[in-house]
Write a structure and sequence with these properties.
mainly alpha, transmembrane helix, globular, CysZ/EI24, CysZ protein, membrane, 9 helices
C-alpha cells in the first residue's frame, strides 16, 4: 500500500505525455458517443411510445426525458462504460508508462489478442453488473441513512476497480494463468477506492480511468522491485 501515493503521483505527472493524451481523447470520445447514441435511441423510442400514448407527436417531452435518463445513467454507469472502453486502449497507456519508466520490461510483455481483450472486458462488465446488483440489495435498506448507499457502492466498486486495473497490467506480463496476483487485496481495494472516488467527481471522472491504468502499471511493476524512477 505504501507505493500508492508514488504510483498516483507518477501517473498524474505523465498525463501530458502525447501518447497518454491520444488515448484519453479516444476514451472520452468513444464513451461520450456511446451515451449520445443511447440517448438518441431512447429519444426515438420515447417519441414513438408517447405518440401512441397521448395521440400526438411529443418530440420535446421525449427529448427532455431522454436527456434526464442519459444524465442519470451516465452518472450511474459511467464507470462501467469508461472502463469497458478503456480495455481496448489500456495497452497504449501501459506501454507509454513502461516505455518511460520500465523500458527493460517492454520486451517481455505479450500482446493480448483482441478476442482475449473482448472476453476480459465482457467478464469485467458482467462482474460489475452482478456486484452492483448485489450492492443495490444491500443499499436499499440503507437509503434513508443518506450516506449508507454511497458507502456500499463505493466499497463494491473500489474492490472491482482494483481487480480490473491490476489485471490490465498483470495479464500482459504473467507467465501463466496460475501465477499469483501481484497486488494484495488491501492494496487493490485502497487503490480501486481512490479511483472510484475520482469517477464520482465531474470532469475528474474523464481522467480517472487513465490515471487508474497508469497508476496500476506502477503498482504492479514496483511490487516486483522495478524502480527505474
Amino acid at each position: 500500500m505504501k507505493n500508492i501515493p508514488t504510483a498516483l503521483t507518477l501517473a498524474l505527472a505523465q498525463l501530458t505525455d502525447p501518447r497518454i493524451i491520444r488515448v484519453l481523447s479516444k476514451t472520452i470520445l468513444v464513451t461520450l458517443a456511446i451515451f449520445a447514441g443511447a440517448g438518441f435511441a431512447l429519444w426515438l423510442a420515447l417519441d414513438r411510445y408517447l405518440v401512441g400514448w397521448i395521440g400526438e407527436s411529443s418530440e420535446e417531452l421525449g427529448a427532455i426525458v431522454a436527456i434526464v435518463v442519459v444524465l442519470l445513467g451516465g452518472w450511474l454507469l459511467f464507470r462501467i462504460v469508461a472502463l469497458a472502453v478503456l480495455q481496448f486502449f489500456a495497452d497504449k497507456v501501459i506501454m507509454a508508462v513502461e516505455a518511460r519508466h520500465y523500458p527493460d520490461l517492454v520486451q517481455h510483455a505479450r500482446s493480448i489478442p483482441w478476442r482475449e481483450e473482448l472476453a476480459n472486458s465482457a467478464r469485467g462488465v458482467v462482474r460489475t453488473l452482478l456486484a452492483n446488483g448485489a450492492a443495490l440489495i444491500v443499499a436499499i435498506p440503507l437509503f434513508f441513512t443518506a450516506i449508507g448507499p454511497a458507502i456500499v457502492f463505493w466499497a463494491v466498486n473500489g474492490w472491482l476497480l482494483g481487480r480490473e486495473l491490476q489485471d490490465m497490467v498483470w495479464l500482459r506480463h504473467r507467465a501463466s494463468a496460475q501465477d499469483t496476483q501481484p497486488l494484495s487485496l488491501a492494496t487493490r481495494f485502497l487503490f480501486g477506492g481512490i479511483i472510484a472516488a475520482l469517477l464520482a467527481v465531474p470532469f475528474l471522472n474523464l481522467l480517472a480511468p487513465i490515471i487508474g491504468a497508469a497508476g496500476a502499471t506502477h503498482l504492479v511493476h514496483r511490487r516486483h522491485g522495478n524502480r527505474n524512477v
